[in-house]
Amino acid sequence: MKAAVLYGDNDIRYEDWEMPQAEPGEVLVKVKESGLCGSDIPRTIHGGAHFYPIVLGHEFSGEIVETGEGVTERKRGDRIACVPLIPNRNDPQSQKGNYSLSKGYKFIGSRIQGGWAEYVAMPWENTVVLPENVSYTEGAFFEPITVALHALNIMNFQGGRDVAITGMGTIGLLTLQCARAMGARKIAVFDIDRERLETAREYGADLCLNTLEEGFKEKAMAFTGGVGYEVCLETGGVPVTEILCLDLAAPKGTVMFIGTPHKPVTLQPNEFEFINRKELHVTGSWMNYSAPFPGWEWEMAVYLFDKNLVKTEKLIDRKIPLSRASEAVNDLTVPGAVKGKILFECEK
Ligand SMILES: [Zn+2]
After folding, report:
1. Same-domain status, 319 and 232
2. Average pLDDT of the residues of the chain
3. Residues 262, 173: one domain?
4. Which candidate, 15, 230, 274, 289, has a CA 20 to 30 Å from the CA of 133?
5. DSSP readout, 16-55?
6. 141 CA to middle of ligand 1, Å?
């Protein structure tokens, strides 16, 4: 079979690769569409891969073409989305159902070979069956959307609250749509990119603010009658938006950090004091799993796509054959060249 194999920084080669076999308890998946995640950027261009050569890709959909010994819960022809975490079931956190927090897990597409390939073999538990009217493209978004849903799950998100979301990248735009579908009252979103903000408006945001424009914070507060937002969801992973969330939160509000941080953050005393003075709940979220594995997040993703409550069209930068993976990875090194999700078509 063919795969896009990473040999080093910005060195991806589309070449022949060993065909995987479905071991007992596993299924062999013919990959249809496979995404390039923000978390793949350090792996592909900043020396961040666990080993080389490696086939990345943990956000993908496909069709089961073979089942290994003992597999009764899946069958040939099932259309699936990949669930990339293979928990270490002996870890105490796994036993409590906190799979994302466990140690010693395997991860398809970063710790073991992944889905930038024509075929992947994986445990059947690592597949979620797609309903008929959920496309393979939507299936490739199950991994990122469950990141948003996990945050909402562990904070016991309730509808009827005003919500602020910072960062309108893939995760931000998915978080927005999940919060909308789950009954958020007013949603204000924040970014520096005008196009992304327009997409956010189309995808359900009530107020879209550019943080480069003067007076945005006053507008945001006025939108809630000066009270602030009961729920602030941070997906940008940059100091400006991290601090902004503490500022925008209503008294007793919850600030949820989803975005992976990339830079040091310095809080001035008055900024830190937001936490004290407003008695904020400041919390974080990691990955996308809960008990029973893989969790409510994945069931909810099925529901949201099945009911057409989430759109992905404008989240996609381009869809290209896997054979052109190196060109996409090369673009990651050019500022502004990639705006949104790159999807690889793995049959071409
Ligand atoms: Zn991802």
Report:
1. no
2. 96
3. yes
4. 289
5. E-PPP---TTEEEEEEEEEEE-TTHHHHHHSS--SSSSB-
6. 9
Between the CA of 42 and the centroid of ligand 1 the distance, in Å, is 12
Does residue 14 sit in the same domain as residue 119?
yes
pLDDT digits (tens, 9 = 90+) for 68-98: 999 999 999 999 999 999 999 999 999 999 9
Q: 284, 316, 331 — which closes off a domain?
A: 284
Of 239, 258, 284, the position where a domain reaches its end is: 284
Distance of CA 38 from the midpoint of ligand 1 (Å): 7
Separation of CA 204 and ligand 1 centre (Å):
23
At 286-339, the pLDDT tens digits run 999 999 999 999 999 999 999 999 999 999 999 999 999 999 988 988 888 999
pLDDT (tens digit, 9 = 90+) per residue, 205-262? 999 999 999 999 999 999 999 999 999 999 999 999 999 999 999 999 999 999 999 8
Same-domain check for residues 331 and 255? no
Residue 319 CA, ligand 1 centroid: distance in Å: 17
Which of 39, 50, 36 is closest to 262 using CA atoms? 39
Look at residue 150 and tell me if it is in a domain. no
Q: Are residues 53 and 170 in the same domain?
A: no
- What region does 117 belong to: left with phi over 0, alpha with psi -120 to 50, or beta? beta
Q: Is residue 17 pLDDT above 70, yes or no?
A: yes
Distance 227 CA to ligand 1 centre (A): 34
